[in-house]
Amino acid sequence: MTEHPLPSGDRRGELAARLERVRGRIDAAARNAGAVPPQLIAVTKYFPADDVRLLAGLGVTDVGENKDQEASAKAADVDDPGLRWHFIGQLQTNKSRSVVRYAHAVHSVDRPGLVTALGKAMAAEQIRRDGQGQPPRPALECFLQVDLRTVRPADASGPAARGGADPAGLTALADAVAATEGLELRGLMAVAPLGEDPADAFARLRELSDRLVADHPGADRLSAGMSADLEAAVAHGATHLRIGSDILGPRPSLR
To answer: Its function (predicted)?
Structure first.
């Protein structure tokens, strides 16, 4: 692992306190649900690589990013084999080759074209690694992102859109991932729709998950829940939580 100097202790203390509070909320939610605490993914988008290193020192093993340009640079800078990188944003097909170089999982698989692109990217990455005498990389874990809105307008990219595939197309999308070499179907991902009770949305997600698992028993993971609604997500079976602001704090100035 590349050695880097760490920032001053003030930021570490802030992150430690925030992380402790979030972990406490997760543990309490899991106790209330009679469940195993979900895997915490610290969403570090817009924050520097130094914060990722500090979080790793505090026991965080999984980090999430939603833009490839930022994620690829940050993963190379941190260079910690103990970290798992999760791509959680909308992914353009032309970024697939870059993403498979560092990502442990992609949580936003939402269309057949992206499945095809990721499969080709994985094949190319294995060839690249073999040519450089590197071991092959593990299969890329894939979560199908589903749109949980109860009403989908003709303009599916309108102001209420949070991304994701129409639930009616999940079966075909899941079959495509399962049939693609180098990809591993792990489950579903969703964001609670704006203006809706997240508990209702995550209850629908759990129903969709149960149907998916009936056909693909290994695809039993649920990536759901963020800072504002993690308790509702845990209550409905979330296995992965994507928490950003409650751990990292307010988004830094982008000036």
So the answer is: Pyridoxal 5'-phosphate (PLP)-binding protein, which is involved in PLP homeostasis.
Domain containing 145: what range?
9-149+158-247
pLDDT in tens, 126-166: 999 999 999 999 999 999 999 999 866 555 554 444 579 99
Structural domain includes residue 131 = yes
Number of domains in the chain: 1
Does 108 map to a domain?
A: yes
Rg, the chain, Cα only: 18
Q: What pTM was computed for the model?
A: 0.91
Distance CA 86, CA 142 (A): 10
Least Cα distance to 205 among 184, 228, 223, 186 occurs for 223
CA 202 – CA 193 distance, rounded (Å): 10
In a domain, 61, yes or no: yes
